[in-house]
DNA sequence: TGGTACATGTAACATGTTACATGATTTG
DNA sequence: CAAATCATGTAACATGTTACATGTACCA
């Protein structure tokens, strides 16, 4: 649905090759939307056909050539349109909660190790986001819209993982000694 | 990946036809995992072939016949095994955050209507979950593992939507008068 | 007679995952 | 000399979405 738009956002920030886009989708934008390199290399020619991006082959010395994509005016228009279009709430997909409901039938002890593991994963992510928050926004969200948007994206990660850590703690209290 | 397991959980709670499963995936279990009827009717024969569920055609008076599926012992084993298997953290897929990063480039006003809309959606879900919490768990999570697991699943929905409402409020404060 | 609930499917397409495939350059 | 990084792809398969397709029974 919106991998195309996620790519447009990344290219609107700055032009990039498929390879560079993949690495951005492992960090930054990737905190909110994931994509593998296979998806990327399949999607980019489609975006080019649609006229939303342009491509240029850039020879490099000492490295393989790369094909650098940039967003076009038409791409920018399509992106602005998508920003305003209502998008349904993300389809929920919480396998941990499916497991918890499974544990309601098969016994809580089956799922305790998974809850502990998830707590650790979310706590790690939370620490990372808080560190970025300190490093990049230690003195507040800033005055310009750009900085505030980037701050808010980060902030959603903080709130998300905080609430999962809190849930795991509640769950462990309730289930560890049933 | 785990639609199969979500179906097993639902059938472990009690047997059902494809049609009934679809309606459960619109409520209860559906708060954590979504599936359309096409997915269901494609998946059930596969589960049967795998020996994880059994099927029985049940004639009904005044209604079309239905095919009722039930979990088998093998299915129950497979489910217990999955409950204990480490599952990667859910791939994040937050189109609203992609839009916010887009707004960092194209301007915050593009995304404000979407944020207001999402706030309303999450506030509605939150009210629904809190109502279920009052009605079904007004006097606490209960003493048995089954009740506690069901309570915790609900609780995760409450925390999730609470944190989104909070984020939307922060975002509207920061972006409404840039 | 028209809508909703019950009940089950097929076909085509879009998206996502896993495995396979190649090859140069840099770093330890 | 082995591993990591840069760089781009194909093929097969699994999963998810949208549209098409059919038919009964009940209620207003």
Spell out the key features of this protein.
homodimer, 178 residues, mainly alpha, Arc Repressor Mutant, subunit A, 3-stranded antiparallel sheet, 7 helices, elongated, DNA-binding
Kindly describe this structure.
Chain A is mainly alpha-helical and about 180 residues long. Chain A folds into two domains: about 5-85, Arc Repressor Mutant, subunit A; about 95-175. Helices cover about 65% and strands about 10% of the residues of chain A. Chain A contains seven helices and three strands, in the order αβααββαααα. Chain A has helices spanning about 5-15, 20-25, 35-50, 75-85, 95-105, 110-135, 145-175, and strands at about 15, 55-60, 65-70. Chain A has a three-stranded antiparallel beta sheet. Chain A is elongated and about 65 Å long. The first copy, chain A, starts with a helix and ends with a helix. The structure holds a DNA duplex (28 and 28 nucleotides).
Q: Helix and strand layout, with pairings?
A:
Two copies of one chain form a homodimer.
Chain A lengths: L2 H11 L2 E2 H7 L12 H13 L3 E6 L7 E6 L1 H12 L10 H12 L5 H26 L7 H31 L3
Antiparallel strand pairs in A: 1-3, 2-3
Helix pairs in contact in A: 1-4, 2-3, 6-7
The structure holds a DNA duplex (28 and 28 nucleotides).
